Amino acid sequence: MNVIETNNLTKSYGKSRGIVDINFSVKEGEVFGFIGPNGAGKSTTIRTLLSLIYPTSGSAKIFGKDVVEHGPEIKKEIGYLPSEVFYYDNMKVIDLLKYSASFYKKDCTEKIKYLAEVMNLDLNKKIDDLSFGNKKKVGIVQGLLHEPKLIILDEPTSGLDPLMQQKFFDLLEEENKKGATIFFSSHILSEVQRLCDRVAIIKEGRIIKLEKISTLKENNYKKFKIETISKLDKNYFNIAGVNKLESKGNVVNFMFKGNINTIMQKIATVDISNIWIDEPDLEEIFMHYYSKEE
Ligand SMILES: Nc1ncnc2c1ncn2[C@@H]1O[C@H](COP(=O)(O)OP(=O)(O)OP(=O)(O)O)[C@@H](O)[C@H]1O
Prior knowledge:
3 domains; ATP binding; alpha/beta; Rossmann fold; ABC_transporter-like_CS; binds adenosine-5'-triphosphate; P-loop_NTPase; 31% strand; elongated
């Protein structure tokens, strides 16, 4: 079953582009990453899914229901962490969380305690006295306290220190194992790589790639670094499929895409003293897509 499904979802802000013809679906139990540079349209997509803003054209469904028609009902089953959190500063953390919990028909007391303990959040402090990162933790607890079926997170880790990021990811993994579907936006590639099953890359309001993380990595360039016994002609490896060829002394670096046997045969004809073959990291893969589309 698809938990999220969009159909040519489009949102314009007057004349300026927000998102254009966004099509993707997220399956039940999946962790789906939404990645793109600043201003690409990540928050616009998320806000449209949550019917905080309405589409200009196209539509979206969550749990099989149209988000505009069934917004309030759908939202009861969603945990949402906005990219920036704002609160009434004068409240105590625990009072704010109890107030949030009162919107759901279940007792969230134990869950609040548990989440606060994991995230190292002092429930008795006033919101006013919290740092930016601690306010973010309040948002995280608020988003997870009712054990939602779908968790939507907009740039969730900004403001959290590395230890807290780790704990937060552990929490998400726990919720996912219990069945929650997770959709999160990010421009931090390593966190997408760690958590997600699939990822959509968004650029200038449009999805330019939607792929399994594993396929993204497999179908791509491999990085070669070869050290030879004697210096080669600089164009020796300049064959079809080779890119970014650079040589310095006896060391040659390049990226290769194509039938791996072709390049291995080419390598076998020279005396080498060392060889390194690496998968490009996601950052390199994404930069490749961004620049290709420009
Ligand atoms: N309220 C608004 N009025 C006008 N234009 C807007 C509004 N909100 C967003 N936009 C524009 O829509 C586009 C997408 O913005 P959006 O905030 O969705 O991007 P984003 O991918 O979330 O970026 P970031 O990582 O910087 O948060 C941008 O060009 C932005 O300027």
